[in-house]
Amino acid sequence: MVVLGISFGRKNGNSDILVKEALYGAREAAPEAEIKFINTCNMNIGRCRGCGACSTMLERGKDNDCVFKDDFQALEEEVRKADCLIVGAPVYVLQPVGQFKDFVDRFSCRHDYSAITWVLDKRRTGEMPGDPDAFPMERLKKRTVSYISIGGASTENWTSMGTASLHLFGFPPMMKVMGNYNANSMGTIGNPYIDDQLIENMHEMGKRTVLGYADDSVKFFEPANKPKGVCPVCHQSLITVLPGTTKVECPICGIEGELSIEDGAVKVEFSEAQQNRARGTFAGLREHTTEIQGFGSICGPKIMANKEKLDKLMAERIKGFEDQINRK
Fold this sequence. Notes:
Elements: E1 2-7, H1 14-29, E2 34-39, H2 53-59, H3 72-81, E3 84-93, E4 95-96, H4 98-108, H5 113-124, E5 144-150, H6 162-170, E6 176-183, H7 186-189, H8 196-214, E7 240-241, E8 247-249, E9 256-262, E10 265-269, H9 272-275, H10 282-293, H11 295-305, H12 307-319, H13 321-325
Parallel strand pairs: 1-2, 1-3, 3-5, 5-6
Antiparallel strand pairs: 3-4, 7-8, 8-9, 9-10
Helix pairs in contact: 1-8, 4-6, 5-10
């Protein structure tokens, strides 16, 4: 078993401390495991430029590296080797630092479980080229993950999108989430080692991350000193209210629930059917794959029917923008 800790914070800062303490907990639960730690702060991980090369090469039956050469590939390779992951990132403005999102944007499209299996199915039926048995199957292997967001504010709403955004990393490859912890109030705590309960929580979350890999009975870690989440899938408390109704959606999982008020308290119920189509499930991912695969048949005819108009406008108003905007 390989357990990987990734910190997107500054070296030896709070993010490093909490991820490493979670790894100590993982070691307690799995003495035989190979433990790895990576701090990404000095890594050069550029943004995804939407070139589509990775998905195009996948559809052609090839497993390729990202065409943009920086440190992304090295980090991706370590994730591919890992069985269990602890991911920590500081929150500066409501959500994790941009480097995390840059990595996720490039990682997700290469590890979407539904998109990959869709291609493999097409290969098996001969509809696409490539040998399905030659595909690097570590992209589809089972993994567990836990998330830690770190912020200074005492009020949790200043870090409200911390762990929620961290979930974007794990749902495309269908990683099993074993815990998420919003370590806010670091501005008043001072240092994680001053808060014994915080360190204990990190150890417990690290333990469950490795124990949950082989044992489905191990429960998601919900610390006693933090409020329980509303969504039963991602355990976040963010909800989107659909105007004019009592229906709500989890913006992370994409599932719909029913809101009610009982004894003055807000209650949200998510049906089992909705939980089974959350974004991190195969059914939820396949919904999205099916939608994407249908874009061509919808947009293609529209574009061809308006080709002359579009070519003219693109040449004049977009490629010739400087001349047009400054024309007197």
